[in-house]
Design goal:
Layout (H helix, E strand, L loop, with lengths): L19 E3 L5 H7 L6 H16 L3 E7 L5 E9 L4 E8 L8 H15 L4 E7 L3 H9 L3 E10 L2 E11 L1 H7 L1
Parallel strand pairs: 4-5
Antiparallel strand pairs: 1-2, 2-3, 3-4, 5-7, 6-7
């Protein structure tokens, strides 16, 4: 049961002074350099192309958090599925991890998705990524299900977590 007086951190309004903008195809090189150095340019470019297409089709949103020179320092997106919005491909440049940028991105993604009427969210992380899993649980997501998926390093077990907000929204009015 969700506590309306103290909503999960993911549902709290994003309060930050970091520049955030829509992702663009021209972000492929800086994102690869700063966030995904082990991925090929084409892998990052394809991810961004899919993200931009989803935004154009109103099936999702992709955001980058930038520095003062508009260089991407973090990326996150959501895709709208029939039962929820799936937050995915969340990444923060290695030297900036642990400074709250992932929380800012998740709050911003959830905030914008809620403006579109989305009331349920899923996010996943490989089981060997306890730092991400701890963050998602801290933000209010709860374990939902586990799948084996093909990721960068081959087949891995991925823990999906879910955050439903229908109950909270129905009491707010």
């Amino acid at each position: 049961m969700m506590n309306i007086e103290h909503p999960p951190i993911a549902l709290q309004p994003p309060h930050h002074h970091m520049p955030i903008r829509f992702a663009r195809l021209t972000d492929a090189d800086p994102l690869r350099d700063r966030c995904w150095p082990n991925r090929t340019f084409m892998t990052v470019y394809s991810l961004l192309a899919r993200s931009v297409r989803n935004m154009t089709d109103a099936r999702g949103l992709a955001l980058v958090l930038t520095d003062a020179q508009d260089t991407p320092m973090a990326f996150g997106q959501y895709t709208v599925w029939p039962t929820c919005a799936e937050i995915s491909d969340l990444v923060v440049a290695e030297p900036l991890r642990g400074q709250g940028l992932g929380t800012i991105l998740i709050q911003e993604l959830v905030y914008r998705a809620r403006q579109q009427g989305i009331t349920a969210f899923e996010i996943g992380a490989a089981l060997d990524n306890p730092r991400a899993l701890d963050l998602y649980r801290h933000l209010g997501f709860e374990d939902s299900h586990t799948l084996v998926l093909s990721l960068d390093r081959g087949r891995e077990k991925v823990q999906f977590l879910r955050l439903d907000i229908v109950e909270a929204d129905s009491r707010e009015g």
